[in-house]
Specification:
6-stranded parallel beta sheet, 16% strand, 199 residues, alpha/beta
Amino acid sequence: EPKTFCGELRDYQRDGLGWFHFLRELGLGGCLADDMGLGKTIQVLALLENRRTRRLKKDESRRPSLVVAPKSVVFNWIDEAKKFTPKLRVADYTGLDRKQRVGNLDDYHLIVTTYGTLRRDIAELKDQQFDYAILDESQAIKNGTSQAAKASRLLDASHRLSLTGTPIENHLGELWSLFEYLNPGMLGRSGAFASLCKS
């Protein structure tokens, strides 16, 4: 974890942080599927603090990262960021007045929103360039034809992560939607993947 991170990661969380860096170097998205309560949020915040403090390359500009989460955990993200990464500028992009209240997304390091807001605002959000797009409780996009899944695939992000304790809830076919978000095309077409899962 960076020196500016206000906390200490456990060994397995450091391994997770190293894995995030490894994925970025390879240009791959990844799913952190730790059980609930093992600190997925903290690992991501350590990553985002590392991104905030990094030295930019000549042609690189600093972009915000986006976390999409269920409404019930949005405030957890904001509180944990205040506690562990107080220098991260965090925007709560929820509520009816979100656009007026937040203003320019590029003024922040981290934007936290809900799946419902992502669906409603995807016409604007798809034109915003993000450093990381992170789906928390990413089983929310297990149905690849849902509006949330389609909206998540339209996001323009240099890097993609998903966090979930249950990457598969009902059948293997749910993995297709998750990986189509993380690494488009990796598992082929949905119909072909579904046929493979049945055989």
